[in-house]
Specification:
mainly beta, membrane, transmembrane beta strand, Porin_dom_sf, 3 helices
């Protein structure tokens, strides 16, 4: 009888906990079949993962507008079933306290400066797989051991201020980003710095009926060696179909090669969560042919 009473008590506690909080399992399965030519190697056909992921997130309402939440995100290769990166929760592992003041987050997550610029204009395949932006600079990038503050949304304006602790021999890092989304106009800016490596970028995107056009300009500075990087992107929608084109260019420096990249893509949205698509992407490395990439792909992406 004591065991039965204990089980009943635990069940009551669990039911109460679930009533006060919510936990969601979510993710993305994204894979293509591609004809690839990398560098000077022979062309080959491959099954290619496009940054598939599995995540768990939850939130508890503490009352008075105060909420606590967490996010755990695991990257995996759909084509092999293997995890990506060394850590299991390699994409994100964080806990956050939010309210009218905004939010304070601790842990590991992707820099806001990236989402505010390069990722925002990567409309074809969310900057994943072989058609991702090969030119965007990650100078000053650090995702682990961070403390960040997120402002509330004020008339379309939001910002993120993040500091990396710099544990052990690792240097401290800073990441700043800002976004403005109001009507058809979307603006963003980002800055990151760690030691002698830093980057800053600005982004603009405009929606005009079936057409969407955008781009970003970035300045990379590593040990005093600088170069400019930019990308333009466009999308035309017609019913469930999307037609994409984007082109990027990176200048030459002592720490970076001169290169350009062209991507043409087509998406057909079977639903809000599922699409079939195809693309052609070509990366032309002007300083080293071994870094060239040429790929023709068809695939499917499902968000859950």
């Amino acid at each position: 009888m004591k065991k039965i009473a204990l089980v009943a008590a635990l069940a009551a506690v669990s039911a109460s906990a679930f009533a006060q909080s919510s936990v969601t399992l979510w993710g993305r399965a994204n894979v293509t079949v591609e004809s690839q030519k990398i560098g000077t190697a022979d062309r080959k056909v491959v099954v290619q993962d496009n940054r598939s992921r599995l995540g768990v997130k939850g939130q508890e309402d503490l009352g008075g507008g105060l909420k606590v939440s967490f996010a755990l995100e695991h990257g995996l290769d759909i084509d092999t079933g293997k995890q990506t990166g060394g850590a299991f929760w390699n994409r994100e592992s964080s806990v956050q306290l939010s309210g009218a003041f905004g939010a304070i987050r601790l842990g590991n997550w992707t820099n806001g400066s990236y989402f505010a610029t390069a990722d925002y204009v990567s409309m074809h395949n969310h900057d994943t797989g072989t058609s991702d932006d090969k030119l965007y600079s990650g100078a000053g990038w650090t995702s682990a051991n961070k403390v960040g503050y997120f402002t509330p949304n004020i008339d379309g304006f939001t910002a993120e201020i993040t500091m990396h602790a710099g544990e052990g021999a690792d240097k401290r890092a800073f990441d700043l980003s800002a976004n403005y989304d109001q009507g058809p106009l979307h603006l963003g800016a980002g800055y990151s710095k760690q030691g002698d490596a830093k980057q800053y970028a600005g982004r603009a995107l405009y929606e005009l009926g079936e057409f969407t056009v955008g781009g970003y300009v970035q300045r990379e500075d590593v040990n005093g060696e600088t170069r400019n990087i930019w990308r333009l992107a466009g999308m035309y929608t017609m019913g469930a179909s999307e037609f994409h084109v984007n082109y990027g260019d990176a200048g030459r420096s002592a720490v970076g090669a001169k290169a350009n990249q062209l991507t043409l893509g087509y998406n057909y949205n079977l639903s809000k969560r599922t699409k079939v698509y195809g693309f052609f992407t070509k990366l032309d490395n002007k300083d080293n042919n071994a870094g060239d990439l040429n790929s023709l792909a068809v695939g499917i992406r499902h968000n859950f």
